[in-house]
Amino acid sequence: MKRSIFNQLMFGFLFFTLVHVGHASTKNQISNEKKDDKTEWRQLFNGKDLTGWKHVGPGSMSVEDGLIRGHGGMGLLYWTGEKLGNCVIRVEWKMRDENSNSGIFIRIPIEPYEEWMPVFYGYEVQIDNKPELSNEDDYHYTGMLYSLTKPLAKPGKPGPQWNTTEIHLDGPRTVVYINGIKVTDYKEGDPVPERKFDFEPFRGPRPEYGYIGLQNHGENDVVYFRKVEVRPLTKKNKASE
User: Fold this and answer.
1) Is pLDDT above 80 for 190?
2) Structure pTM?
3) What is the pLDDT of residues 120-129, one digit of tens each?
4) How far is it, in rounded angstroms, from Cα 33 to Cα 10?
5) Nearest to 71, CA basis, from 208, 180, 222
6) In whole angstroms, how far apart are CA 53 and each of 63, 68, 79, 95, 98?
7) DSSP state, 1?
8) pLDDT at site 241
9) What integer pLDDT is reported at residue 239 of this predicted model?
10) CATH number of 9-232
11) Which run of H or E residues covers position 161?
């Protein structure tokens, strides 16, 4: 994720309002109240078209041979159905080239209206196995909460191999697995480094429920997504401490 100098001050006054709105809205959110669907995965991508999804920002996303892919950028394709929280999100993806840049966005406080608001006020679960090529460090590696966490492991596979990202949203805790290996375990309030670049997210709390999205980073960073699914968080499928 890189960007030119941007007038971030225009967003500043919105920050705490966005987080408050994200906490306040609970209608139609995923929960574990329904006993019948505790273990059922619900597909958010039907494999045919982008029904239920909306794109904001430059570029676009399309479905080719049953896979979502981005064109141009930087933009975001987000799920419009509801805010997600206390759930497990599983995404299968692969890089077109040996390495590419993209991300899975979570905890976006309100429905995205342009491409940078989710960057600054949500969390990006990064896709980039070689952040050093962009003069970035391990805080920007695959599976990290972009610029906030360091990898517990580095199991990301280069393109064109498939990878699985599994994200556990457990109240204020966010746990990320890449190919079955835990790489991030973050709880709201944990210490994080100061921002190094103007394209990094603002520090501060995120809501327990928020919108999710898939990033198209740029014309030369093509990542394919073949599955996006979600299920309620239960005692059985919670991440271990």
Assistant:
1) yes
2) 0.88
3) 999 999 999 9
4) 39
5) 222
6) 12, 11, 5, 21, 28
7) -
8) 76
9) 87
10) 2.60.120.560
11) none
